[in-house]
Amino acid sequence: PVADIEVLNIIDSTNTYLKDRLAQVEPGHVCLAEAQTAGRGRQGRQWISPFGASLYVSLCWRFPAGYQSLNGLSLAIGIAVARALKRTGIDDVQLKWPNDVYWQGRKLAGVLIEVEGQMGGACDVVIGLGLNVQMPTEVDGITQPWADLYQALGETVDRNQLSAWVIEALWQVCEAFASNGFAPLLEEWHALDYFRDQPVTLLSGQRQQQGICRGVNAQGALLLEQGGQITPCYGGEISVRGQ
Ligand code: BTN
């Protein structure tokens, strides 16, 4: 298969761009931008997107009618990013459920997945990845500790090469996920799990639950242990207790 890749200069958001063009583009279509003026993160946050400093990439994928659960998809995408990073020489990234990529305790990449269509019917999914490559030393507006590839590798990476590795890994994981779901990726995810067996707070909407993170299940749900009981949790984000 050949990916149709669109390279844009400055855009509001590569996810928005693809979402607006779902009727025109083929599944597998990729777009990249040099900068975003309205980059979007999860939970309505903004994604600060300085020119040439990161990869801003979005991929459109179509999942067939009857596809049951896209929950594990975000976790699968985290694995794709870790695989691509391994090819750059970084093999010590960790994944924070559902799909943040960390290096030495700081966020290196984030994923925003947006689904259009009916669950249970065919749906188009736009998968957006922001991967910090070489950020300006001072960036306003980022509210959490971050890292970039320049720090992790000690040298500049070729963004074209990196893009190719990232796109290849995203495609492979989407194809595998479409055929077999998340279950075959479970062990790989566990090997990268940042918070396994740690006390965490799960935030979903206004709700906060505290417990011990016991990994994820074959559907990609977080397993939260509370009072000796383990419950699968499907939405939200986690933070380490006390932070
Ligand atoms: C997060 O961690 O909150 C997710 C960040 C996702 C950012 C990427 S950059 C490319 C794509 N376009 C967007 O507007 N967002 C995603």
Strand order of the largest sheet: 1-2-3-7-6-5-4
- Label the CATH architecture of the largest domain: 2-Layer Sandwich
CATH topology type of the largest domain:
BirA Bifunctional Protein, domain 2
Cα(first) to Cα(last) distance is 44 Å
CATH superfamily of the largest domain: Bira Bifunctional Protein, Domain 2
Mean pLDDT: 91
What is the SS-derived class? alpha+beta
Largest sheet descriptor = 7 strands, mixed
Q: What integer value in Å does the Rg equal?
A: 17 Å
Portion of residues in beta strands equals 25-35%
Give the CATH level 1 class of the largest domain.
Alpha Beta
Count of runs of 4 or more consecutive helical residues: 5
Uncertain runs are: none
Q: What percent of the residues sit in helical stretches (DSSP H or I)?
A: 10-25%
Q: Find the count of extended strands (DSSP E, 2+ residues).
A: 12
Order of SSEs: EHEEHEEEEHHHEEEEE
Assembly state of the chains shown: single chain
> What is the total number of structural domains?
2
